[in-house]
Structures are given as structure tokens and as C-alpha cells.
Amino acid sequence: MKTPSKVRSGARKPERVTLKTIADQLNLTPGTVSAALNNSAAARSIPEHTKQRILTAARELNYRPNFFARSLRLQRTYTIGVIAEEIGDAYGSMVISGIEQHLRQNNFFFLTVIHRHDKKLLQTYSQMLQSRGVEGFITVDTSLTEEPALPTVAVAGHQRVAGVTNIVLDHKRAARMALQHLQNLGHEEIAFLKGQPFSSDSVARWDAIVEVAQELGVRIRAELIVQLEGNDSTPVIGYPAGKKLLARKRPFTAVFAYNDISAIGAIWAFREAGVRVPQDVSVVGFDDIAGAAFANPALTTVRQPLLRMGQIAAQALIERIEKRGTCQPEIAIEPEFVVRESSGPVPGRHLPGAAFGEGPRLSSGRT
């Protein structure tokens, strides 16, 4: 009977591929290889064909950079903290996805914490992230009132705070697009779903709606305003708001909702009561989340480029961390208006072409 063969004592584990391994194979210095792989400032002096040789060799040798060694050598962590109100909601997840894409392309990591508008938790998490060596913060739907200890970019922050760059949507233009669209369709009795007080966009968006409505001659009636309540991140948030509007027995022919999820929830309530959208009531949302185009009916909405906003936030923060840019107090983002199936002419009135409003950023369809 044969005994199991033993592993030869001389057998060696494959050596880890290092910068020196690649440098020796290409007859280059480790510094040149490092500059090319990290795309540092020194890489500008390296010929393009040499960079491509280095990148090809790194792929073929399955090179994996040692980020711990890199951090110790440069005394940097290449990590940022993302502070968000919610990670699973349609708004926050798209913004964070954009942040992740840009950070990954630039070899940065990120740690995420969720505060759910708890001020004590927000402070605790900020300190926790600092203790873990993050080099800056990106906040999403988070109200900041004090200057942060690290470079910070806020998506939908709105408050002017020293050291913070705000990524903000032009809410006045967004309000004008939506209200003009409904006005062009003949709607005069317009109801509004108002954002929760804790949401950082609520005040700015409502103020813009009130200002634009006055300019356009659109009357805002108190009995047709419903305040969203709770922090549910699904269409359930809009269902009771829709029920409240119907229960008030005040006629309305259109609804402009704070966001898409509340608009979709309100449509559920309307359908349950036998109110058709858009034949009886038109509904306009805000955000253009991924599911807006596939709601029933497909939702007319103000589009925020959420993925792009996340990418811009990450780019702005990296530039500040690496001192390639100054602290801009604000970066403005332009909205678009997307016309789909949830809006139409006021009942009993046909207005050919009016559904498409006006303006250079109007679009339609499921894209």
C-alpha cells in the first residue's frame, strides 16, 4: 500500500508581485513604475508607450498594490467618509453610486455611515470617521451648521458653512419647469406634497415653488398643501398624503409632489379611490429616480442628475484633499424636465402639443 506523497520541503509559495518585480521585468526603476500605476504628477514625464508597457505588465503579473504600505509611506489613507441620511433609498443610493464610481477610478476608498437625521448620531459618526483616518467628508441630505474639521462636500446641503462646498440644484428653474408644464396644460387647481422638515431640500424647494408660483400667477391654496410625514423611503410615504388630499373634498386637477416616491404613493391612493391619472388628475414628481419611468403610469418629473452629482462631489473633494483646487462655496447643477404619461391636459380640455412646455432642457420618454 502506497503512503501519501509528502509535499517537497523545497516547494516555495509564489512570491508576491511588487513594484520592483515589474520594474526588473521592464528594466525600469520602481519609482517610474509607481508613478505610472498611481497616475501621479511625476507620470506626466513618462512617455505614453512606456506607461502602456507598465500597465500591461501589471495586468499580466496580476499586480495588487499594497494600500497599507502606500498609506504608511505617504502618510495618507486615501479614504473618505460618506455621511448620508439613508443608504437604501432611491435618491441616496444613486448619489452614493456616483461617488463610488469616481473614487474607484482614482484609487480612493470610502466608509459610509447613516444618521437618519439624528444630530447626536451625526456628531458621533463624524468623530468616528475622523478616528479612522478619513481625509474628507461627502454628506448626502445632511444639514451642516458648523465648520467641519476636514474638507467637506455636501450634496443637497444648502447651508453656507465655511469649508463646505455645496452641490445644489437650481430649484427655482426646476419649479418653473414643473409649474409651467402644468399651467400650459390648463391646470389651475394644483395640489402640493410638501417635503418633510428634516429633509435638507425641503425649505429651498418649497421657497422656490412659492416664488415661481407668484411670478406665474399660480395660486397656492393652503387646503391643497399636504405635509409629508415620517421617514419611509418607499412610495408608502405618499399614500396617506394622497388620501388626505381626497378627504378634504377640495377639487384639484394636478399634484406637484416633493419627490418621485411620494408621487407614486399618491397615485396608489388615487387609483384606489377610482381617480384616474392623468385623465382625472395629473401628477408631477421630482428627482427622476430609477423607477420613475416604470411607474404606472410612467412618471412626469423634474430630473436631478443624481449619479452625476455624486461624481462631481467626489471629484471636488479629491481636488480639495490634494490641493488641486480651492474651496468653492457652491457648484450649481441644472435640472431637466421629463414628460411621461402621468400628466395631461386638464379634464375636458385638449391642448395639442402643450404637454411639452418650453425650455432647452425639456425631454421625454423613459430615458
Describe this structure in words.
The chain has 367 residues and is of the alpha/beta class. The chain folds into three domains: 19-65, 434 Repressor (Amino-terminal Domain) (Orthogonal Bundle); 77-169 and 308-333, 3-Layer(aba) Sandwich (Rossmann fold); 171-304 and 335-364, Rossmann fold (3-Layer(aba) Sandwich). It contains eleven helices and 13 strands. The protein has a seven-stranded mixed beta sheet, sandwiched between helices. It has a six-stranded parallel beta sheet with strand order 2-1-3-4-5-11, with helices on both faces. The longest helix has 16 residues, at 90-105. The protein is elongated, with a radius of gyration of 26 Å.
The unreliable regions are: 1-14, 350-362
User: Which structural class best describes the helix and strand composition?
Assistant: alpha/beta
Q: What is the count of distinct domains? A: 3
Shape: elongated
